[in-house]
Amino acid sequence: MTREEAGKKLEAMRRTLSRWSYEYYVLDAPTATDYEYDELYRELTEIEAEFPELVTEDSPSRRVGGKVLDRFEKFTHNVPLMSLDDIFSREEVDAFCDRVAAACGFMPEFVVEQKIDGLSVAATYENGILTVGATRGDGVTGEKITENLKTVRSLPLSFSDPRIGRIVVRGEVFMPRSAFEKVNAQCEKNGQNTFANPRNAAAGSLRQLDSSVTAQRGLDIFVFNLQEIEGVSVTKHSESLELMRSLGFKISPDYKKCKTKEEVWRAICEIGEKRGSLEYDIDGAVIKVDDLALREMLGATTHAPRWAAAYKFPAERKKTRLLDIAVQVGRTGVLTPLAVLEPVFIAGSTVSKATLHNADYIEEKDIMVGDVVTLIKAGDVIPAIIAADSDARDDGVQRRKFAMPDRCPVCGGPVVREEGEAAYRCVGIECPAKLARSLEHFVSKDAMNIDGFGTQLVAALLDAGLIKNIPDIYALASKKDELVALERIGEKSAANLLEAIENSKKNDFYRLIFGLGIRNIGVKASKQLAAEFGSVEAVAKATFDELVALDDFGAVMAESVVSFFADGQTEHTLRLLAERGVNMTVTEQKKASDAAGPLAGMTVVLTGTLPTMTRDEAKALIEAAGGKTSDSVSKKTSLVVAGEAAGSKLTKAQALGIRVIDEEELVRIIG
Question: Active-site residue among 8, 9, 74, 115?
């Protein structure tokens, strides 16, 4: 294919893919199957890879993100993105309409729209191409989030209208409820904090420095205002909405034109009635004067226009009785109290359970089992208890205080709460509730590094009942037929996996320590424990005082190690691993190598930026030469390797008279 042929073909493919995307994400009326879209998209990316100079800003391939920023640039809006004054009652709605009518000399027409609960943005198009996306910020100065905004599939990357030279539209980026549930499920799976509501999730996703992360979050947008336009004149807001719709924008849904304040209130009520059935969150309705010339005449205060107002829906509240407080154990071992309620209908659904966050929250709110409690739906999605009715405690119903258990309700293992944390955690290595996460960590790259043993395989093995604990990994060889029978696992894949499992038995001892998932013990501390004690048996017998005496080993880390090895579940797991041939010691060959290395017995501190090596690469070289690295300078430090912009560590080393070298000298010493 010639360059000219490729250019013509790409142009046609971009038009087709953009049309299919518009039909799917904006009109909700797809004419192409997912397979057809994926095949054409794959062909487009292949041609773009062959002719990268032909990639355009409006190519569908720009939707996937991938650009990573250090920070967001500031952006000044030509037309301020103003906020709105809030009103909360029918009387205030009428008063707003009357004020506008008095200023105009007559009752003008209004437009009433849903108030989407998301993040306000402005998108600038030059000659039909999206060039800048920016957050609202303070209304005057926002941040450029262009690459992230391009990942929102319902927002056109380009449009075709030769009349329009420049256009700036304002919209609300939001996260649909279905996408919110998926994002939170993934966060929980990864051991990350979940988002409190879809608005927070949308805001956090849109401000990711890595746009490929934003692309995975399923964000959407409704465009609700025309900020600037060149080449076309419009006289009414409703007219501008229809113009933006014709250009391919997804505009405010089901907006209503109203001639009287009674019609305005009726439109607000209709929005309120639909609120519980929508796939996205709204927190009110917006009332706007339709005529743009009247808007100009009415003007604005320092922060809000006089021609618009936001009616805020009150959060629905219901009272019900707290029957019990159960405790759930998450994938990371965190114990979460869960309210068991007398079922109550609220905000469109019947609720019988609600999160209570943590033990501190229960104590702070003085919540007792048996109380009458006030329930809301936070963000109209997540049921939450906001108060207990202490005045109703003389109703004859028995109450009891809640206390977090000291043993895991799932496995009976020990529960710990570390200083400064609100969370209680089960630290039992055999706890079924966190088994999937424990397995994923054990086989990961920095731990036992078993190639081909990913998240999907862990889930499949657990679903099939082939694994019930970590040592069962080393019994899979006897279950090869069941392994081959799993979806996407054939004879060759099974053979490769079993070979990788067998090879992992000979791993360096520190990998096993890290793979066990001891709280607060990372790769570096695992290497330190392996080097200092030499075997699992010796680490298990180590006392708190022996551990805390190690370099960079604090009291929290020492306590984590002692309590982990004191648990019966740990003893059982280690016994099974030893029986199945997993290496439990530092080999003599390794010890001899360390002792003979040019940095044997030396503690090295790295500071500043090295000219040719990353920090991890330098650490690997030092450890391969028999030395060990530390993050802090002390009298025990043997060498400090200083790079560009070395800071306080260099100063301290000089004060203590410790030898300081550069990267070149380090390489020379290691040889």
Answer: 115
